[in-house]
Amino acid sequence: MRSLPLSALQHYAFCPRQCALIHNEQAWAENFLTAQGRALHERVDSGEPETRKGIRFERSVHVSAEKLGVHGVLDMVECDMQTGRLKPIEYKRGKPKPAPFDEIQLCAQALCLEEMTGQTITEGALWYGQTRHRLPVAFSDGLRAETLATITEVRELLESGQTPPPEYGKRCKACSLVEVCQPVLLGKDKSVKYVAVFWK
Ligand code: SF4
């Protein structure tokens, strides 16, 4: 089974075509938003582990869950030194979104930690740079089911080897791949389905 990078879940949530372009076609381009996000993560990742008030803060934690088929690097994991309980923390550049994309990515992190440690992880948190606040996230049965379904969808998409046709929308304005993707141009092109399947 192909192991998916955690970042693929986030890219898929943003746009399935972007996910396929990045993870199957190795396309990447940086724009202002991705550069800001990268700078934020570099700042978070560069800190040394530390312990404050009984909590150990581990940065850039590498995870790989074989059964789940997901791997990646977590921004931060908090460990309660008394109970040993783990809590994943993900840093985001922007603000909370209406759809639970960030929650799904965080829950996938928790599922990786659970497989690796045997621990049940009940809660994590998202920290948003734009609003500068921390949002607690409970890993409910519903969120877990949604996360597993998303992992399956991403795997099916990437294993199909097909790149979905572009669907132009508001998100394209924030997409670093807009030049590679050409949503307006290809969206009007009747041969786009042919291109999506055979132009690889
Ligand atoms: S430009 Fe739009 S359609 Fe193309 S990959 Fe980006 S978000 Fe998706």
Please describe the structure with a list of short key phrases separated by commas or semicolons.
single chain; 200 residues; alpha/beta; Lambda Exonuclease, Chain A; 23% strand; globular; disordered C terminus; iron; antiviral defense; iron-sulfur
What does this structure look like?
- The protein has a domain at 4-10 and 30-160: Lambda Exonuclease, Chain A.
- β4 (70-80) and β5 (86-92) form a beta hairpin.
- Strands 1, 2, 3, 4, 5, 6 and 7 form a seven-stranded mixed sheet that branches.
- α1 (6-14) runs antiparallel to α2 and α1 (6-14) runs antiparallel to α4.
- 42% of the residues lie in helices and 23% in strands.
- The longest helix has 20 residues, at 141-160.
- The chain has helices at residues 6-14, 16-23, 32-46, 101-117, 141-160, 178-181, 183-187, 192-198; strands at 4-5, 50-52, 55-65, 70-80, 86-92, 123-128, 133-138.
- The radius of gyration is 18 Å and the shape is globular.
- The protein is an alpha/beta fold.
- The protein is built from eight helices and seven strands.
- Bound molecules: iron/sulfur cluster (SF4).
- Residues 15, 17-18, 21, 166-167, 171-172, 175, 177-178, 181, 183 line the site of iron/sulfur cluster.
- Residues 15, 17-18, 21, 166-167, 171-172, 175, 177-178, 181, 183 line the site of iron/sulfur cluster (SF4).
- It comes from Neisseria montereyensis.
- Keywords: Antiviral defense, Exonuclease, Hydrolase, Iron, Iron-sulfur, Manganese, Metal-binding, Nuclease.
- Residues 7-182 form the DUF83 domain.
- Belongs to the CRISPR-associated exonuclease Cas4 family.
- It holds the Pfam family Cas_Cas4.
